[in-house]
Specification:
There is one protein chain. The chain is an all-alpha fold. It contains five helices and no strands. It has a single domain, classed as Orthogonal Bundle (434 Repressor (Amino-terminal Domain)), CATH 1.10.260.40. Helix content is about 55%, strand content about 0%. Helix 2 packs across helix 3. The chain is globular and about 35 Å long. InterPro entries: Cro/C1-type_HTH, Lambda_DNA-bd_dom_sf.
């Protein structure tokens, strides 16, 4: 998982500092996420998936499908 997060960031030519600012955390904490030194909180994992237009399953190595899942619309008539 950690390799994918780093690869996605590098594909966009972003620094760890830039990603940390987006996630509202320090560069040091973000670096720890990429190295796998600490677990990534769920809300951060979701923000990463949204930012990179992918799924949390892709980030967690549960699928090799990079494409994000479609967002379901609430059906208020139910």
């Amino acid at each position: 998982m950690y390799r994918r997060i780093r690869d996605l960031r590098e594909d966009k030519d972003l620094t760890q500092t830039q990603m940390a600012e987006y996630l509202n955390c320090s560069q040091r904490i973000y670096s720890n996420y990429e190295r796998g030194d600490v677990d990534i909180p769920t809300k951060i994992l979701i923000k990463l998936a949204d930012f990179h237009h992918t799924s949390t399953d892709y980030l967690l190595n549960r699928t090799n499908e990079k494409k994000a899942y479609p967002v379901e619309q609430n059906n208020s008539s139910l």
